[in-house]
Amino acid sequence: MKFTKSTLAVTAAFAAIGLSTQAQAGATLDAVVNKGFVQCGVSDGLPGFSYTDASGQYRGIDVDVCRAVAAAVFGDANKVRFSPLTAKERFTALQSGEVDILSRNTTWTSSRDAGMGLNFAGVNYYDGQGFLVSKRLGVKSARELDGAAVCTQSGTTTELNLSDYFRANGMKYTPVNFDKSDETVKALEAGRCDVLTSDQSQLYAQRIKLAKPDDYMVLPEVISKEPLGPVVRQGDDEWFNIVRWTLFAMINAEELGVTSKNVEQEAKDSKKPDVRRLLGADGEYGKDLKLPKDWAVQIVKQVGNYGEAFERNVGMESELKIARGQNALWNKGGLQYAPPVR
Amino acid sequence: MQKRASAPPSRGSILTDPKIRGWVFQVLAVLTVAGFGWYLFQNTQTNLAQRGITSGFAFLNNTAGFGILQSLIEYTETDTYARVFVIGLLNTLLVSFLGIVFATILGFIIGIARLSPNWLISRLAAVYIEIFRNIPPLLQIFFWYFAVLRAMPSPRQSIVFFDTVFLNIRGLYLPAPSATGAYPAFIASVVIAVIVCIVISRWARALREATGQPFPVLVTCISLLVAMPAFTIVVFGNPFVWTLPELRGFNFVGGMAIIPELVALTFALTLYTAAFIAENVRSGIQAVSHGQTEAARSLGLRPGHTLRLVIIPQALRVIIPPLTSQYLNLAKNSSLAAAIGYPDLVSLFAGTVLNQTGQAIETIAITMSVYLAISLSISMIMNWYNKRIALVER
Fold first, then answer.
1. How many angstroms separate the CA atoms of A341 and B363, rounded?
2. B41 touches chain A (CB under 8 A)
3. What DSSP string describes A77-117?
4. pLDDT one-digit tens code per residue, B164-205
5. A4 touches chain B (CB under 8 A)
6. Of A74 and B4, the one with more pLDDT
7. pLDDT at position A3, please?
8. Which helix (H) or strand (E) covers residue B178, if one does?
9. How far from B17 is each of B11, B29, B219, CA to CA, in Å?
10. What is the DSSP string of B127-138?
């Protein structure tokens, strides 16, 4: 009797510190199917990437990755629940099993990939770190920032890149770190710091949050490589494959000219072998992924292809108006490239 | 187990012997607790390894690589995480120390004011206590940081005092002293003056107890503390040179900077805790029976002397134990620093370092043990002081 009691206590204790979920292959998909939705960790409010619109709906390019996974697994892009996480909370939330996917403008680095029990499923946005300054300072280049006070969000790779850049150029700076990105924006506006540094995409997003966006500018220098992508727990290859190929399906769909408008037509009538395989008309590629046959059709129909998601959230159709640049397809001068479905 | 007068009645079996049974259950309890601890440790290790999460304390020797807003000791980005830990710890201790000193002074003043026969003073003290005691400390920190200190001007429009002190949104910039050749002689003279003062005050007390003769200790000591260092300055020259802060480029360079995060945190913690201390002081003083005051007055002591020599020494016995828990609260509340970006232990070590290394269990365990150690040290010092001032029964 005593033994059972103590075993129970131990199990309870471990459930409490979040180590009871087993990282076995297949466990995540089973759990997701059982509970009926995907739990997705997103940013705590970053226009274009993940934010809630006026009607309380989550929107953004990171949000769309999670919606696409839900569309692939359930055939319903709305079977997602979102957990807004700060930069500091995000990895613990994923490691402990609180979220199934972390899609929160997270930079792919070796230490996160290898040392923290995580796997990056791909890159949904190629970014780089930049600087946002007030035009009143009269600064034209980051090289003129010697002695400046710089606001950053703590617990991010930006803190390290910032220090590397200033050291490499023999310049000094005063770091002012806040937990939330909104606080860094407020601090810049109040004049607590001269410069705000973050990934360039975020700078554009933060700039439109300022009271007078036109008084501020993003400096031309990009001081780092920031490949951002969705992250899953290490050790569950099946779930990893699903997330990775959901992203690839969106990119492939754009490359093959499949859009949310023509996807059902294409699925029925297309003669192109690549399109037929992607949309499940030929072969059993969904089955390999333990997904329904029409997984890619559902993704593109409900969420759109990569290009559509990009334009809608951060591109020319959005407030941010970020050019495709590095995020164009590989055959259009960018870096977005997906292996084929076959 | 109490020993019986006669030989314990034999019950024929060790199973029923209360002494042995007591031992067995105690050993079992210890084994269960230890086994549970070991199981937790082992399970955590296995799970971490299984998930490919790095564990262990080797990360402390890795290069930190990020900048820190305020460090009391030398720090560059190439230093290790271990040094970041020390900096965070010192910043936590600094704000706790400042908070404790100011809260004690303010708390005593308000507590005594609360008992003042003057209606206005006692009402004002009551209003202060009720307001600051009943607003959560985090909101008070936000108030000072976002509402008050954010209203300061930009560096170029700094408020200037005497051309040497500058106040702006980035902080308070003061001239910083740096030592010259005359510094050792200056410090030596101060130390000697303090020692002489202690000797004189002991001697004066002995004199008073033996003969009843008063000796002006305070005046003598102040003159000594002024005269001796002044003499060394005349002989050896100025012990310090002052470097003035100066606006260069974006910010002030040189001098000493007190960052607004530290000021906001110290203000909020001081005002919040002082309200509680004031109540402790009031209750302590009220615990001393009124007869003591009447007796002192009938002996001809003046009101000031009555308070200082009769009431407060007795009130302290009641004040010290709850005062200790206020100090502990203040030290623990200092971890709210993370909310406004003051680089304390929680924000630096359990924040940035945790994130960059990903070793949550280790960093959190270290941070928790540090707060435990700080709290236990405060308790120990206060208990020692409490024992020292306890009423000696004769």
1. 44
2. no
3. TT-EEEEEE-TTTHHHHHHTTS-SEE-SS-B--HHHHHHBS
4. 788 888 888 888 877 777 788 888 888 988 898 889 888 888
5. no
6. A74
7. 39
8. strand B176-179
9. 7, 18, 73
10. HHHHHHHTS-HH
Q: Does the CB of B253 have a partner CB in chain A at under 8 Å?
A: yes
Residues of chain B with pLDDT under 70: 1-12, 392-394
CATH architecture of A129-224: 3-Layer(aba) Sandwich (3.40)
Is-contact A150 A194, C-beta < 8 A? yes
pLDDT of residue B37: 92
Give Cβ neighbours of residue B127 (< 8 Å, ≥ 6 apart).
Answer: none
A234 contact residues in B (CB cutoff 8 A): 51-52
Non-local CB neighbours of A186 within 8 Å, separated by 6+ positions: B146
**Where in chain A are all domains bearing CATH 3.40.190.10?**
22-126+228-327, 129-224
Q: Residue B336 corresponds to which tokens in the numbers above?
A: 């709210």
CB within 8 Å of A119: residues ≥ 6 apart: A113, A231, A232, A233, A234, A240
Q: Which of A40, A130, A45 is nearest to A86 (CA)?
A: A45
Considering only CA atoms, which of B193, B51, B171, B156 is closest in space to residue A118?
A: B51
- Sequence-separated (6 or more) residues with CB below 8 Å from residue A273: A282
> Is A14 in Cβ contact with B67 (below 8 Å)?
no
Chain A residues within an 8 Å CB radius of B343: 177
pLDDT digits (tens, 9 = 90+) for A18-61: 444 444 556 899 999 999 999 999 987 888 899 898 898 999 99
Cα–Cα dist B336/B355, whole Å: 18
Counting every residue written for chain B, the total comes to 394
* Closest alpha carbon within chain B to A136: B250
Cβ atoms of B137 and B333 closer than 8 Å: yes
- Quote the Cα angle for B134-B135-B137, to 5°: 120
Alpha carbons B75 and A214: distance in angstroms, whole number: 37
- Please indicate if any CB of chain A lies within 8 Å of the CB of B156: no
CATH class, A22-126+228-327 region: alpha beta
CA-to-CA separations, A154 to A162, A207, A334, B29, in angstroms, rounded: 12, 19, 30, 44
pLDDT of residue A20: 40
Interatomic CA distance for residues A61 and A59, integer angstroms: 7
CA A2 to chain centre: 48
Distance from the B22 Cα atom to the nearest Cα atom in chain A, whole angstroms: 18
Q: Between A61-74 and A295-302, two packed helices, what is the crossing angle to 10 degrees?
A: 140
Domains along chain B with CATH numbers: 49-156+260-394 (1.10.3720.10)
Nearest chain B residue to A180 by CA distance is B339
DSSP assignment of A139-183 = --SGGG-TTEEEEEETTSHHHHHHHHHHHHTT--EEEEEESSHHH
pLDDT the model gives residue A21: 43
Highest averaged pLDDT of the listed ranges A130-139, A142-151, A304-313, B208-217: A304-313
Give CA angle at B222 (B220, B223), nearest 5°.
65
